[in-house]
Write a structure and sequence with these properties.
There is one protein chain. The protein has two domains: 3-175, Schlafen, AAA domain (Methyltransferase, Cobalt-precorrin-4 Transmethylase, Domain 2), CATH 3.30.950.30; 195-448, no CATH class. The protein has nine helices and 19 strands. It has helices at residues 3-9, 33-49, 81-91, 156-181, 199-217, 247-255, 338-358, 415-428, 437-448; strands at residues 21-24, 52-56, 58-60, 66-68, 92-93, 99-104, 111-117, 125-126, 143-145, 149-151, 231-238, 277-280, 283-287, 303-306, 311-317, 333-335, 363-370, 377-379, 400-407. The strands form six sheets. The protein has a seven-stranded antiparallel sheet, sandwiched between helices. Helix 7 crosses helix 8 (415-428) and helix 8 crosses helix 9 (437-448).
């Protein structure tokens, strides 16, 4: 399964409605005008939320999970991108463009349509009523509200949040334009922290790796959750936390209004639906490898930890080793763009947690490591035409650890420069391959706009 398809397929691994994900049954978007209006309302709300996804063909069961809804069409071509964008054009002002893909659900093989909704750079309103006033109301600014549901803002705080998000989106677009104009200029200078400041994070990483080793060693030898061919991990420390929350409050903070840039983000917190989050020591811990270990693949056997003191750790196996890389065997490939997305997600998580736990700017110490690299080849996703053999570069070392120190509020604005500088040594392990800065910029623009 190509990298881009995998990111959408991850949404179907444990389907759930969130503020950035809406689930619908099999809507008739060709003949039912009310269904079109209902969908338009959801799309506007997601665009005003900052982007997200709509999944079709699922319904909630009595035990709280999601299963296939009745009424599957004989042919899913009835879910057409032009039809979706025609609905947006008819109901939304200003207009915005959505993507649509037919995605195979991991483990079942069933296919479902998924709409990718971009973030709106300005507040988007509905420009007409639905049929007989049903489904959507004219001149409303819909947002995603807890529930989750798509409704108009209910108070000044929700209006402020919508306006602020659009302002930040415009700022991000402006900064991206500046980066393109200034390409080739001197990159951002990241000043390394003093060696003695790394001791708490280094100890945290070693402790976390040790806990994971103990857990994986208890699994059956054939379990994919053992990540036998390698794994990657990321850890960070927020260094200026003065008021501590409880472990339970930390869990809620990590789950509340979480922004997902892929279907399966780092530090997954969708508790109660196959993601066991437990108290451990002074913090919280999650180990997905214990859930059906004989069925788990390396890419969905996450192990993560977090403490109110601002220490976070995440470990995951390679999706390239999860039986979805045919005709290549597991252990042979590292996706060319996957480390860019993974590290960027972790850095944005660090900025988000720093803001939520400190309420102001804080310093972040960040480390990431990659193992099982030797004899892997870099491979580009099918959408990229780079004019070279995608298996050209072969790793000559087995592992690498990278680190940086950065002010939290600089992460989003300087994400391209930070990720590029941090990951260059990783790519150089593949026969001195020089990671193009333009590639990092392109991939992060895709990630931040949900266009994958």
């Amino acid at each position: 399964m190509p990298d881009d398809e995998r990111r959408l397929a991850d949404l179907l691994r444990v389907p759930r409605e969130d503020l950035d994900a809406e689930i619908k049954s099999w809507l008739d978007l060709n003949n039912n005008r009310e269904h079109k209006a209902v969908l338009a309302k959801a799309l506007i709300a997601l665009a005003n939320h900052g982007g997200g996804f709509v999944m079709f063909g699922l319904e909630r069961t009595e035990n709280g999970t999601y299963a296939e809804a009745a009424g599957r069409p004989e042919n899913l071509t009835v879910y057409d991108q032009d039809v979706i964008n025609g609905i947006v054009t008819y109901y939304a002002e200003p207009n915005f463009h959505c993507g649509l893909e037919i995605v195979e659900q991991p483990g079942t093989g069933s296919q479902y349509p998924i709409i990718t909704v971009p973030a709106g750079a300005v507040p988007i309103r509905s420009k007409r009523n639905g049929p007989e006033g049903r489904g959507i109301t004219q001149n409303q600014y819909y947002i995603r509200r807890p529930g989750p549901s798509s409704e108009p803002p209910q108070n000044g705080q929700e209006w402020d949040k919508l306006i602020r998000r659009c302002t930040l989106e415009n700022r991000a677009d402006l900064l991206a334009s500046f980066r393109r104009i200034l390409a080739g200029e001197a990159p951002l200078t990241i000043i390394p922290a003093q060696e003695d400041t790394w001791a708490p994070l280094d100890a945290w990483v070693e402790e976390s790796l040790g806990r994971w080793e103990d857990k994986r060693n208890a699994l059956p030898i054939e379990s994919g959750a053992r990540c036998p061919l390698g794994h990657w991990w990321a850890a960070y420390q927020i260094t200026e936390i003065n008021t501590l929350v409880t472990p339970g409050e930390l869990r809620e903070i990590m789950a509340h209004e979480r922004v997902r840039h892929t279907g399966w983000p780092p530090w997954p917190t969708r508790g109660g639906e196959g993601i066991p989050i437990v108290a451990q020591g002074e913090g919280i811990e999650c180990w997905l490898g214990q859930n059906d270990p004989n069925e788990r693949q390396p890419a969905d056997a996450d192990f993560w930890r977090a403490t109110p003191q601002g220490l976070f750790f995440q470990l995951r196996g390679y999706q390239e080793d999860s039986g979805e890389t045919e005709p290549d065997e597991p252990g042979q490939i590292l996706g060319l763009v996957i480390p860019i997305w993974r590290v960027a997600e972790c850095l944005l998580h660090a900025q988000d947690m720093a803001t939520r736990l400190t309420g102001e700017e804080a310093n972040v110490l960040f480390r990431t490591g990659w193992t099982g690299l030797r004899d892997r080849w870099l491979r580009a996703p099918p959408r990229m035409v780079l004019g070279f053999d995608p298996r050209q570069w072969n790793a000559d070392e087995d592992s690498i650890t990278l680190r940086l120190s950065i002010e939290s509020m600089r992460i989003r604005d300087n994400l391209v420069e930070i990720v590029w500088q941090l990951l260059r040594p990783l790519y150089q392990r593949f026969e001195f391959y020089e990671l193009p800065r333009e590639l990092v910029q392109h991939e992060l623009e895709l990630m931040l706009s949900y266009r994958f």
